[in-house]
Amino acid sequence: MKDKEYLIKEFIKSIKQKFYGFSFLINYDFNEDSNDFYIWHNSKELQFENDNFREFVSDKMEELFFSNEFYDFNFGYDKHQNFNKSSELNNLYDGFNFGQITFINDGSEAGNEEYVLAA
Question: For residues 12 and 27, is the Cβ–Cβ distance under 8 A?
Answer without folding.
Answer: yes
